[in-house]
Amino acid sequence: MSRKQLHLTVQCESKASDLPSRKQWQDWATVALPETVPVELTLRIVDAEEGQQLNREYRGKDYATNVLTFTFDDDGPLIDGMPLLGDIVLCAPVVAREAAEQGKALHDHYAHLLIHGMLHLRGYDHLEDDEAEEMEALETRLLAGLGIADPYIESDGRAIDD
Questions:
Q1: What angle do CA 91, 44, 113 make, to 5 degrees?
Q2: Partners of 40 in beta bridges
Q3: Alpha carbons 114 and 99: distance in angstroms, whole number
Q4: How far apart are the C-alpha atoms of 128 and 24, rounded to whole Å?
Q5: Please, where are the H alpha helices in the chain?
Q6: Using CB atoms within 10 A of its CB, is residue 117 exposed (0-12), middle (13-18) or buried (19+)?
Q7: Collapsing DSSP states into helix, strand and coil, what is residue 7?
Q8: Predicted local confidence at residue 81, as pLDDT
Q9: Alpha-carbon gap, residue 155 to 150, rounded angstroms
Q10: pLDDT at 84
Q11: At what angle do helices 106-121 and 129-145 cross, to 10 degrees?
């Protein structure tokens, strides 16, 4: 087995244009993989209606959100030799709106949100301040390795509020 192994399925259910290529999705997801655990990931790109329905059904929030991560087994420990399984859903109109509002390149924002979702898949969270700081620092470092600016700082140097 290679050090980093990803089996990626991409499902595009969105009418959005200017979506990243399969290779871009693969490259971005790979930077956030664990070193030795294989990952089987389904990435689904949706429009607002499906994004809202999923967020309402699984999080009790009645609006479309940018990214949702679903892990196969939140409560169980990783079993040696078994892949990490999960789904990431990106809502294309929300991602496009946020990128425009924050003055970010659309594909840079997609890269950030996919990496954010990958870290959730790996067990990272941002409910507590110290968890958020750790997760954001890792996202920023991984994105910098791709040549993408800190996603939490606007071009004028102000912090972006979540």
A1: 55
A2: 7, 85
A3: 14
A4: 31
A5: 22-31, 48-59, 92-102, 106-121, 129-145
A6: buried
A7: strand
A8: 62
A9: 9
A10: 78
A11: 130
User: In angstroms, rounded to a whole number, what is the distance separating the alpha carbons of residues 111 and 119?
Assistant: 12
Please, are residues 70 and 119 in contact by the beta-carbon 8 Å criterion? no
DSSP 114-147: HHHHHHHHTT---SSHHHHHHHHHHHHHHHHHTT
Q: What is the mean pLDDT of residues 1-21?
A: 88
- Residue 59, pLDDT > 60, answer yes
SS3 label, residue 37: coil
Q: What is the reported pTM?
A: 0.90
> Span 27-51, mean pLDDT?
92
Q: Which residues contact 63 (CB under 8 A, 6 or more apart)?
A: 52, 55
Integer Cα distance of 80 and 70 in angstroms:
21
**How far is the C-alpha of 47 from the C-alpha of 27, rounded, in Å?**
23
pLDDT digits (tens, 9 = 90+) for 67-121: 999 988 655 555 566 677 899 999 999 999 999 999 999 999 999 999 999 999 9
Q: Tokens 């956030």: give the residue.
A: 32
